[in-house]
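Ticket #4471: structure export looks truncated?
Reporter: QA, pipeline team
Priority: medium

Steps to reproduce: submit the single chain below to the structure queue and open the exported record.
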Amino acid sequence: MTRIGVITFPGSLDDGDARRAIRLAGGEPVRLWHGDHDLDGVDAIVLPGGFSYGDYLRCGAIAAHSPIMREVVDAAARGVPVLGICNGFQMLTEAHLLPGGLVRNDHGAFVCRDQRLAVESTRTAWTGGFEPGEQIVVPLKNGEGGYLADADTVARLEDEGRVVFRYLETDPNGSVHGIAGVANAAGNVVGLMPHPEHAVEPGFGPDTAAAMRSGVDGLRVFRSALEGVLAA
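Actual output as written to the record:
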């Protein structure tokens, strides 16, 4: 069975949800601790959402220097799939595994909503199970989710097809070009601000036209990684 590690940092809130999503997708979740130097031989890695180290200094900045992040950087360089969700996305930018950075929402308030996204790229380890341009709905919850990068970096991301998810209908946090998620050049590292792990089980996801709380669009993010590992 494909083993996906979920790293817990002090202040992680969604690590348990990420492990549940992996289990529902058909993988084996593996608990990893921020203070260790051992990835336990996992096939892929998830950096979960939350408020690592209380979001002191900058969101994700302290966590990016945790001992286990040295192993994550090395694993990413070897092509191991790495997913950063919300605070995990912030960690990936702070660790320079992804370009740009996340800043306080332009309206100055915390946002919590079900968010419609466009899947802009299916050429990543975490989106191979989608169709290009497909629209999905997953929850979003952040106070510092505005994605920013310099003009040259944004142009390069757009030209190289490295914008993975884009906000639709509304830009909830003032992200440049409505960018909700990006990938590295190799496509194995992806960061996104919305939370796919909160849309994996009927009865607990976003509302759909079929029924309340029935949305499970996030499940395919995790299944994409599992299928990719098995196909490798």
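Status: closed, not a bug. The export was complete when the record was re-opened. Leaving a note from the reviewer for reference: The mean pLDDT is 97.
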